[in-house]
Amino acid sequence: MSRMTHQGTKDIPLLFAKELTKNVKKAWKDGSFIESVNPITKDLLRFWFGDAFCDIRNFNFHEGQKQAILNTIYLHEVMGVSSVMDMYQSVSPELLGEMDILDLEKEKYKHPKYAIKMATGTGKTWVLHALLLWQFLNAKTENEFSGRYSKNFLLVAPGLIVYERLLDAFLGKEQMDGTRNFDESDFKIFEKLFIPPAYKDIIFGFIQSNVVRKEEIGTKVTGEGLIAITNWHLLAGEEEKSLNRSPIEDPSEVIKDVLPITPGLTAGNALDSLDNHYLKGKEIEYLANLQDLVVFNDEAHHIHEVKRGGEIFEVQWQRSLLRISEPKKEKFIQIDFSATPYSVTGSGQKRTKHFFPYIVVDFDLKTSIRHGLIKTIALDRRKEVATMELDFKATREGNDVVGLSDGQKIMLRAGLQKLNILEKEFIALTADENGVSSKHPKMMVICEDTKVAPFVTDFLTKSEGLSEDDVMEIHSDRKGNIPQKEWNETKQRLFNIDKHQSPRVIVSVLMLREGFDVNNICVIVPLRSTTSFILLEQTIGRGLRLMWREPIFEEVKTENRIRLLDKKEEPLNYLDILSIVEHPAFIEFYEKLIDEGAVGTAEKPPTGRVNILGDIINVGLREGYEKYDLYWPLIIRESEENLAPTELSFDNMEPFPIALEDLENLIPKEGDVFYSEEVTVRTRFGEYSVTAEIFTATSYNEFLSKLVRGVTSMLIPVGKKKKKSFPRLQVNTAEIAKLTDEYIRHKLFEQEFNPMIDNNWRILFLSESQILSHIIKNVSKAIYEMQNNVDVTEAEVIKKPFSDVAEIKMRENFCLDISKAIYEKLAYPSNKGGFEKAFIEFVDKDSEVYSFLKINEIYHDFAHITYIREDGLLSHYYPDFLVRTSNKVYLVETKAQKDVNNPNVQQKRRATIDWIDKINQLKPEDRLYSQWNYVLLGENTFYELSEKGADTVDILEYEKKTRGQIEGTLEDYFI
């Protein structure tokens, strides 16, 4: 056998897609592309991708979608290809030497055929919409029928979920009465993206009048053209039949063909049954008789060859497409969408992917993650240090499932624990004044068998305390099918889970592996021990869609990706991180999936207003920056000076309100520890235990060490360059450990408590939100009070220049050229940053201002004030601006008017006033020879005063805060 026959297609199609993309980008940039297309296509491309239109929209196609659309149109309209072989000859003929040319001569490749490879969750449906409109409008307006365009479309889904999703996209969400609201369709909601105004009426009329459901194909009368939507069952028949069996070998098949209905006493003789059976296959004949047709195959990895006994067979789905395309020849166009357009041969180390030979674009998983278009993936892996090997398959007696294994229970507990962590963080971030959150993270459990699903539900509800409403179990067979009647009852609740707190957990086998396009799946527990590449990536795909799409979160999510993927550091939060709880035995399959399918980061991030990374620039120090340099006073002690024991005492620390004897019976058993690992660069983070312990110490001493590090980590400044190490009011960690130990032993439970007897220290892990939090709050309070009682005349001051940070990154579209700062530009927020932008412009023009700076907490991480949060933990507060005049320095916090009285800033205010008081007691040379002030500047106040002619000093003096104002007393109120 020849080398190329042995290789099959392998990854050659990806090389073709890369070369095609290179050619298309060049043609698009030099204008030859747009000048080579029809007038209708030219109108569409300018409307979809022209800057004049993109700049005024809040949503646009991202780079991957744009490239898929352009590559397809380029091949079909500019190059005029008529077959897969023609594609290669037109773009990259040298690659044909690596292909099986005889394979490309098969009938199924002898018409225009394009495969769009895009990661799950990156918006393949939007590409489908655009290409459908391109085909329809050109077919509608062409003077001479060419066969290159069509008004007839067949959309094929792999199952009920994708089928329903497509109906939603074209007709709108289904209402409780069974009708659909077109105002909720993609074309109506995103009208300003898809439809140029001149074509609005014709497009809306076509869609609303010509969509045909699967049961209506061939019977519903439409106008000019049709959009037929079906699932694969229409093309494959009721079920797959043996591919190597002939009717002669099975006489019953002949009888069925001659006598379609077997007489009987039930509904067999009913006229509707006879009619329905007679019409089976008529849909395919109807489609075959159309003069032209465009077929869109969603999740098209189902269409591939099957090898049996050394012979190659086409699946029934593909055989039906061949039947439909046969009379049309080049007037049959097939466009396939899939995140996994390949088949797999071999097993183990010999397993090989064979990509579809007609892939025209490759927007893969890694690229999508880097662009922030889907969630970042993290594997929650179990530590195997000093743990027993566990069985991760269900317990069986013969073929009967009798229960879950210990390994499965641990995985479920780990997933549930991660879900609880996310719920707590998300609620804290988005809860309204009534404590109601708008974000509801979900966990999805993929079972190994339909018989296992009920045991998972029982375990979660009976052993883990979830209510019946918290768990939704989807019953399906091994092929992922679900009875129509049950589906009708299930889909309304299933498709709306993002909007409601319950269910929290969805349990399924295969039903939800494709097309389950909800956004809030944040945790996946795959109990299946599958080795299927496609099933693994499809499983991951269920949770990839973004949950946090609001622009306000883009910058923090960008920082998360930078930390995880580039710096390999702990994420700042868990926004849009998909956690997959997995046993180490299966990790290799995920690693192969990522490693083999990745081609690296795209050249450019998404364009348009959804751009996240594309306009990031580096801004350095201006020439002569010394004139405008400011420094941040860091009050320190000599590093070798220890605190006197009397300075830290547990006398004023509060005991825990629950008696020790009431806690002793609640000591948990040893738990399992999980940690998260980002899958593309292997950043490890987020260690947690399935028993809800937040400190996983194996000894009391380790517990004390971790607690001390947790409390004091907020007190140690971490510079970008990390060239200097200086103690800010440094607290000797040994003294804190001693204080914590004495507090626990003598004061915490209002009696003597020895943590080293009978592992009593484990009591400290009970009730995470109570005991540990109580300890941390009291230790933090003691440290904070000690620091604020320091006599600053005995302290040393390090003047930390902001110019030590010589370069910062900012978004080019959201920064201003200024003259009175050390940097050439200053940034303002991309979302609702109008106030800060106006303030920067105003201050820069004021002659009374010597210099000013926008503090960037990522780079100027030393310029913060330590305060006690409402939950009692020590944290850092970063003011927005520093403004210096002739004899004063103002710390300015700019707030929208609605946030000025937000109770969440009260603690920051008090801490800032305390800090200002300490700074003003320093020697003049240690505080820029200036009096320091704190200003909480409201948006309305700024605009009102500036419009009345007030200058910067007038406004800041008007809004500066005194201790009396902060504490609500008359003292100093009128000073």
Automatic annotation (TrEMBL):
Annotated InterPro entries: Helicase/UvrB_N, Helicase_C-like, Helicase_Restrict-Modif_Enz, P-loop_NTPase
One GO CC annotation: cytosol
Name of this protein: Type III restriction protein res subunit
Entry GO MF terms: ATP binding; DNA binding; hydrolase activity
Domain of life: Archaea
Helicase C-terminal domain location: 421-606
Pfam family, one: ResIII
Native species: Methanobacterium formicicum (strain DSM 3637 / PP1)
